[in-house]
Amino acid sequence: MTSRRMAKLVGVLMAVAGLLTLVASFTPTGRADGTQVNFSFTVVSGTPGADRIILTGDGKFNSAQVVGNGTFVHFLAVGSPPLPIEGAGTWKARRLISFTSIGTYGPGVSGVLLMEVDLVPNGGDVIPATMKVVCNIAAGGLNTGLPEGVILDIPGGTFSPFGAGLTFFNTGVEPRR
């Protein structure tokens, strides 16, 4: 192989490697810096004597999109157990609206995630909603200024604060072999 052909081949290989690096940095599983933020929560809305929701969820997001889902149970906090269930089902993330990071503590990230979700009641029609997930990390001195938990806005009402429970964002990604 001539030195001219070799130089051309090296140039093409470098261009392909650069393009692959650029594409990999914007994959659905990573932000431009190659990391993703994971989230998980289990919370209960906190207004006694009214409609309440138990909400669970997990997923991941980057600067461009969110992927996540979970379950919900909507019940009336009246009388004695078993409390009457108004509806139950699943939810799925539809669109990332925003994420504001306050800072990190170990693999934990304190911040506010805002996303559009679809609630899918068992045997019912899909209900569009907005979900705000707030994570404060007291041990790291990281506070968003909002109460820890989830706020769920649905047509006709808001369920908040979801203070009984736990929310957590983290950047820990398990290496795969």
Explain this structure to me?
- It is a single chain.
- Strands 1-2-3-4-5-9 form a six-stranded antiparallel β-barrel.
- The chain has two domains: 27 residues; 140 residues.
- It is mainly beta.
- It has one helix and nine strands.
Provide tags for this entry.
177 residues, mainly beta, 2 domains, six-stranded antiparallel beta barrel, 1 helix, 13% helix, 51% strand, globular
| Strand and helix order | HEEEEEEEEE
- Summed over residues and divided by their number, the pLDDT gives a mean of 78
C-alpha-based Rg, rounded: 22 Å
Q: Which segments are poorly predicted (pLDDT under 50) over 5 or more consecutive residues? A: 1-34
Q: How many structural domains?
A: 2
Number of strands: 9
Output the structural class: mainly beta
Sheet with the most strands, sense and barrel status: 6 strands, antiparallel, barrel
User: What portion of the residues fall into strands of 2 or more residues?
Assistant: over 45%
Strand order of the largest sheet: 1-2-3-4-5-9
In which range does the helix fraction lie?
10-25%
Distance between the termini: 37 Å
| Overall body shape | globular
Helical run tally = 1
List strands and helices in order, with pairings.
Layout: H1 3-25, E1 37-44, E2 51-61, E3 66-76, E4 85-105, E5 108-121, E6 127-135, E7 149-154, E8 157-159, E9 164-170
Antiparallel strand pairs: 1-2, 1-9, 2-3, 3-4, 4-5, 5-6, 5-9, 6-7, 7-8
Summary, kept brief:
This protein has 177 residues and is mainly β.
